[in-house]
Amino acid sequence: MGFIDWSILAIYLCVNLLVGFRQSRSVTTSSEFFLGNRSSPWWALGVSVMATYVSALSFLGGPAWAYNDGLAALAIHLNYPIVVFICIVFFIPVFYKSNSISIYEYLEKRFGLGSRLLMSGLFMATMVLGASSILTATSIAVSLITGLSEQICIVILTIFVVSYTMLGGMNAVIWTDVIQGIVLVIGAAIVLGLLLSGSDQMSNTLSYLNQNNKLTPINLDFNFSEVTTIWAGVIAMSMYHTTVYGTNQFMMQRAMAAKTIGDAKKAYLLMGYSAFFLYFLFFFIGILLFAHFEGKPFDQQNSIVLIYIQQLALPGLMGLVIAAILSASLSSTSSALNSLSTVLIIDFYKKFFVISAADSHYLRASRIFTIVWGIVLIPFAFSFQGESGSILEVLSRVSSYLVGAKLSIFLLAFFSKNILEKDIFFGVFASFIALVAIAPLQFLEPLVDSLWAGLGLSRPEIAWPWYVVIATFTNVLVSWLSSLFREKPVEICHPLSIRGLRSESKSRSVELGTAWSDVPGDIDRGVWPLLIFFVASIGLLCLFTASFV
User: Fold this and answer.
1) E strand or H helix at 508, and its extent?
2) How do the residues of the chain divide into helix, strand and coil, expressed in percent and rounded to 5?
């Protein structure tokens, strides 16, 4: 990197630190640290939601995934309109009305303390895995341009992101996310523009990609062992992403930080419409890189974008792209640190250790725990090093072991009448057993395969997107069966179930002439177009596929 590259990178990093220091002046209570002062506009919250999930895993891992699987990988990300529709109709009204900082407080009120602690623990486990893998993906880029080892880069990145997150809390997270989201999109758009301008004839490029099966985003095969079928994307991954956006403190904290429920819903709507285009952008970059390198294999596929930029050797370009990658990484990692600190303070520290103290104590503890979580992430980030495939796919596969339990617990909380906490524990245990039987961890494979062989069967090959379906179905079924053994069934709906909340309150919040309902299950007029957008995107991709058949 030259002087211009380093200057761009330095300016970007200084701006992020400046925002963190500036926002720290307005943080005087622990509530402001967790939720800001609920003054952020809806569009900033929406960009924060987008930037939080579209991380360095997407900027580096997305093109790497498409380099291997082509546009078929896009099937996994077609479901966002459905996911956001479900979150707006059910999850946001329930959590926003609860006026809680941690969404897992709802589970204690609905079932009991055990379910709250179980979900908080699962959240922290998945969040540590996710944030650490993001640091690993980013360290690849930083190591490539600085010559420092990836481990040193992980430590430096962690120190940097902890610094501004610890000071400014949620407000710093939101406004740095806005900056980082803009830089991310600009960086990706420039890479795409350079790839398009570098193609001699686009028709020849598309023909080459078609010959290598990279232009088929719609795969209609009924094959449960394939990851990128339309059925896995629309059915299984809709459930997976509903867990990410609906049952995850990481995401829902932005909805809780909105001034009104209408702002919370509009923030999610922005993600519902933009996600498809963002992931199409990353995957299209991947297939164009496949054409550019003529399908050459790489030892570290997550570095393909950086290798391409190095080849161009344009002054300032590497600095901008690294800034874009850092934008994606820092936004996700800062959000993870803030939400991890929130859950640890609200669900454990304040619940069991320091039950009653001055608010200044909890604010100080929140900042200390932000540092602690940063330290925890480092060894986990080291463990992801050396992964040759797409880190985005690896993370999705690992997380799929846990999301089924999380989704099913909230579904039972929303819609069941007779399910109690002990039934849920039976269901969660059964769901893990089912997943171990279908998709055991590597060290358990010989034992599980021998058990299948003892039954005269072979273990079925099922792709990881379907794990959430298996776990959710198993949990719900076993929880329901467990409830049948009670002598006296529950006679009335719980007041915090969807049915109970609907019968209790029919009030509406109205703003800007548009009704935004705070009643779970109500469908606002502004939400219906999401489904139209979903159908239209599927239709366009079908036409795209048909044009190359």
Assistant:
1) strand 508-511
2) 75, 0, 25
Q: What are 187-235's pLDDT values in tens digits? A: 888 888 888 887 667 778 888 888 888 888 888 888 888 888 889 989 9
C-alpha–C-alpha distance, residues 91 and 87, integer Å = 5
Q: What angle do CA 203, 208, 214 make, to 5 degrees?
A: 110
For 334-357, the pLDDT digits (tens) are: 888 888 999 999 999 988 888 888
Question: Can you name the residues that pair with 516 across neighbouring β-strands?
Answer: 509
Distance of CA 255 to the CA centre of its chain: 15
Contact by Cβ (8 Å): 163, 17:
yes
The H or E element containing residue 324 is helix 317-344
To the nearest 10°, report the CA torsion of 212, 218, 222, 226: 50
Burial of 297 (C-beta count, 10 Å sphere; 0-12/13-18/19+): exposed
Tell me the per-residue pLDDT of 351-369, one tens digit each, with 9 for 90 and over.
888 888 888 898 889 889 9
Rounded to an integer, what distance in angstroms lies between the CA atom of residue 124 and that of residue 128?
6
The span from the CA of 34 to the CA of 437, in Å, is: 39
Residue with tokens 């980082």: 180
The arrangement of secondary structure in 3-13+40-384+393-546, i.e. its CATH architecture, is: Up-down Bundle (1.20)
Amino acid at 128: V
DSSP state of 99: T
Q: What is the 3-state secondary structure (H, E, C) of 509-536?
A: EEECCEEEECCCCCCCCCCCHHHHHHHH
Domain ranges of the chain: 3-13+40-384+393-546
Range from 303-317, 474-488, 519-533 carrying the lowest mean pLDDT: 303-317
What is the dihedral sign for C-alpha 77, 16, 247, 259? negative
